[in-house]
Amino acid sequence: MFGAFFQPSAASAAMAGPADIPLWVEDLTVAYHRKPVLWDVDLSLPEGKLIAVVGPNGAGKSTLIKSILNLIPRASGAVSIYGRPYAIQRHLVGYVPQRESVDWDFPVSALDVVAMGLYRKIGWFRPVSRRHRQAALRELEKVGMAPYARRQISQLSGGQQQRVFLARALAQDARLYFMDEPFAGVDAATEKAIVALLKELQSEGKTCVVVHHDLQTVPTYFDHVVLINMRVVAAGPTQDVFTEENLRKTYGGKLTLLSQALHEYAQAPRPSPGKKGGGE
Amino acid sequence: MNGMGIMRRAGICAGLLVISAGRAWSGGLAEHALEWPSGAELLRVLTLQDYNTRVVIIGAGLLGLAAGLIGTFLLLRKRALLSDALSHATLPGIALAFMLMVAIWGDGKHLLGLIAGAAVFSVLGTGSVMLIQRHSRLKDDAALGIVLSVYFGLGIALMGLATRMESGNAAGLSSFIYGKTASMVFFDALLIGAAAVVCILFCLLFFKEFTLVCFDAAYAASQGWPVGRLDFFMMALVVVVTVIGLQAVGLILVVALLIIPPSAARFWTERLRSMLWLSGAFGALSGLVGAGISALMANLPAGAVIVLTASLLFILSLTFGTARGLVRLGLERRRLRLKINRENLLRELYEWFETRCGTSDPGFNECQLLNAPGRPELLSLRAWTPAHFRRSLRELQSAGLLKKISSDAFGFTPEGLAKAQAVVRKHRLWETYLITHADIAPGNVDWGADEIEHVLDLDLIATLEQVLTATRPAGMPQSPHELAASERNV
């Protein structure tokens, strides 16, 4: 009876993208207190790639991910995951929030946190069983954190906490992963572990969308890039898109960008998301 | 490590405690002279012979249990102060419900009606807080303060009107403000009991869901958990506990029963499940003991005594809690400080001998016997206070690491030498690492290594050795900078 009361209302499935595209975004605009943060974002991301979302502070990288995941309301636009709205496709999506978004003083162990990735599978009211704990432990092993499974989470280093978050997303066993700054403030060992994990996910045919802030490592870690500053500056394979020209456009200040955007709008009809996505 | 955070939390909790204790005092303790119980009375209360006492004590215990359980989630959701605004907002509800019932039936003292009024207004109060938070740029604390005081003021004004109504028997209505356990009848205890059972059931049933929402609401939402509804449900349980607790402890103090038990429980455990039960137990204990004491001393208001009992439990937990109590933290810090002192002394002594006798013969030889430093010489090497220094020396001696060579000069025992070598080794490995891998100038590494070397773990040392000794001969590494011991050559 409670299950029915607590069921989320499924979003309308009016708009939908192609079913073989992991993430398809059209006309997405998000505003905080009337100030636009993301402006008319069109995206179409290919499957099985490691995709970096890159842009300056306040460019709306986290906002993009959160609005895709329905965590913040959209002013306009549509998002589809493998052709259908997110509310229907949640089981295909894993999420790694920013590490600072939670209170690490919380009285749970690393294993407890990873088990949270299984809660949807476990379902309403049922407790976490031994089988689920073992599954969670396997995910911790994948990120090299099994020895710390029983530690209270405030007793872990920043990098270890990040790996716990990754393990929690792995437990969801998704096809498309969103990771919000997983490399922020982590030690070298963790960075290596995350990169290895990303490669492994890719070899399993999974798609990872990673908010990233270190421009130097973009070409080595990622094969696809989305450059973003309030709107999408460029998106496509790293070797095509990750150019000085594009980076300058992305980081070169909002004013030039806005005027450029307005200029483009005046000049030509809007390009379709398929073309913008780099033609994959 | 997280010592500062814990201290800050302790400070906040202590502040809350002082506030609630102060309220408890103004809540009635000061108004009456105390009457000490006779032995026969004591026996009667302890054995629960008196029917009335039994009802009151059991009711208060169950209330404490329910409040402790749902309070745990309230605290972890960081909504402790919201519950304070919520409980203050009940007052206009009580007054309005009373007036309404007088208008309809001529008698306003129906408990269920009053409780319903309180519940409606506590929801209104919570809603007002959320509205202000969402649609204005006021900070949360301001929103809470505004709602709390406005509703309470409205309540006091309406109370004034209600008590001036000619019919309706308004006497005793104000007991909702400070609470009056003694007026509890069987029906009230039954009501509290039922609410407590509901609370326990739901805390168990929703344990997993509440945990997730409290820890990471955004992640929960991304997984499709209805965070808003779970939050609402959690607050509804808080409202239930608050309104049934009004009569027992009063609307000013009921927040203490929600916050203090879980805060106290947190000092004993790092596990949510244990914290939940411990908090429930603390709450129940406070209710039982507090109501018991107040039954013994007729003039002591139960609400205040219940809260003071909880406060006592809190202070004990803050001090002696096995997970993060102050005593444990203090002991840990002291242990670390002493260890650092010991290791520093060992290293200074080793380097003293090293600069004078070389490292070729690490055993205890003639040269070392001749050069053994005295107390003042060692003391001059570091900014040790003499008392500190004496204690470290004594400790090392009693641990069998140092021995007196002559009247006031010291040297190593064989175990002491081995230990000192290990310490020096760690220090130099770290120094070398800082120079080769972190580009720190050799002149500055000593101090940096000094800070960290005491907490390097074995794994890290093994890694350092692998990294650094690949290019260097094994054994004791040379100091990469001039040794202080040699500079101050005596």
Task: Report on the architecture of this protein.
The complex is a heterodimer of chains A (280) and B (490). With 280 residues, chain A is of the alpha/beta class. Chain A is 37% helix and 21% strand. Chain A is built from 13 helices and 9 strands. In chain A, the strands form 2 sheets. Chain A has a 6-stranded mixed β-sheet with strand order 5-6-7-3-8-9, sandwiched between helices. A 3-stranded antiparallel β-sheet of chain A has the order 2-1-4. In chain A, helix 6 packs across helix 7 and helix 7 packs parallel to helix 8. Chain B is an all-alpha fold. In chain B, helix 3 packs across helix 13. Chain B has 2 domains: 286 residues, ABC transporter involved in vitamin B12 uptake, BtuC, CATH 1.10.3470; 158 residues, Arc Repressor Mutant, subunit A (Orthogonal Bundle), CATH 1.10.10. Chain B has a two-stranded antiparallel sheet with strand order 1-2. Helices cover 73% and strands 1% of the residues of chain B. Chain B has 23 helices and 2 strands. Classes of the chains: A alpha/beta (280), B mainly alpha (490).
Quick take:
The complex is a heterodimer of chains A (280) and B (490). Chain A is an alpha/beta fold.
Q: What are the key terms here?
A:
heterodimer; A: 280 residues; alpha/beta; six-stranded mixed β-sheet; three-stranded antiparallel β-sheet; globular; B: mainly alpha; 2 domains; 2 strands; 73% helix; elongated; disordered C terminus
- In N-to-C order, the SSE pattern of chain B is HHHHHHHHHHHHHHHHHHHEEHHHH
- Determine the CATH topology of the largest domain in chain B: ABC transporter involved in vitamin B12 uptake, BtuC
N- to C-terminal distance of chain B: 40 Å
**Percent of residues of chain A in helical segments?**
25-40%
What proportion of the residues of chain B is helical, as a percent range? over 70%
- Contiguous runs where pLDDT drops below 50 for at least 5 residues of chain A: 7-14, 270-280
* Lateral arrangement of strands in the main beta sheet of chain A: 5-6-7-3-8-9
Largest interface, Cβ cutoff 8 Å: A-B, 37 and 32 residues
Rg of chain A is 19 Å
Strand tally of chain A:
9
How does the helix and strand content of chain A classify structurally? alpha/beta
